[in-house]
Write a structure and sequence with these properties.
Length: 210
């Protein structure tokens, strides 16, 4: 028998040919879907769930947008007291408007009125961004937490997201995204927690969580 054989005795070239045929069929399907995607507009992305990586994913998109020379706005609603690597790094970019507006995590402040005031102040900055057509991407980090605790009116948030400039992309992060926000979003990712180092007593690490 010509050609080498796999462990089960079948010629390897037959397996390679089947693989090529499968990939060609898959490519045809993917190419057709790409060709059918003709709409050009800003998208609303919601990153939610109990798993790690929601804000990290959002800041990955910030880096991608800045790499394309786009102008970006970021409002952080909760993580105000923490010195994070992303804050230190991204504030170097003149194309980025970065606002840390939170008072820290809700279990640390223990003051609802204070948290509400901080959320309202942050939302005023965010609404300005959502009206600015010069901003190609706006990240509203931990906005879902604010909505969950009803520090802001959901209807006002949904209205601002719907009426933003047509080309503007928005990323909303945080656990417990409300169903109404999920309904109007274009892309929703629910990050599932499988395992986390903190559960084993490992503290938050610089470059990973901070």
């Amino acid at each position: 028998m010509s050609g080498s054989e796999s462990d089960d005795g079948r010629p390897e070239e037959d397996g390679a040919a089947r693989h090529r045929a499968r990939m060609q069929r898959r490519k045809s399907v993917v190419d057709a879907r790409i060709a059918a995607a003709t709409t050009q507009r800003g998208v609303l992305l919601v990153l939610t769930g109990n798993g790690k990586g929601k804000s990290s994913s959002a800041f990955g998109m910030v880096a991608r947008a800045l790499g394309h020379g786009m102008h970006v706005g970021v409002v952080q609603f909760i993580k105000g007291k923490y010195a994070t690597g992303e804050k230190t790094f991204f504030r170097r970019f003149p194309e980025l408007s970065y606002h840390v507006m939170g008072e820290g995590f809700t279990w640390e402040t223990q003051d609802r009125e204070r948290d509400v005031r901080a959320a309202i102040a942050a939302w005023e900055v965010a609404t300005g961004m959502l009206r600015d057509p010069a901003l190609a991407l706006v990240v509203l980090d931990e906005l879902n937490i604010v909505l969950r605790y009803r520090y802001l009116t959901l209807e006002a948030v949904l209205g601002a997201l719907r009426s933003r400039p047509i080309e503007q992309h928005v990323v909303v992060t945080g656990r417990g995204a409300p169903p109404e926000l999920i309904e109007i979003a274009d892309t929703v990712t629910d990050m599932r927690a499988v395992k986390h180092a903190f559960e084993a007593g490992i503290r938050a690490q610089r470059g990973i969580e901070l």
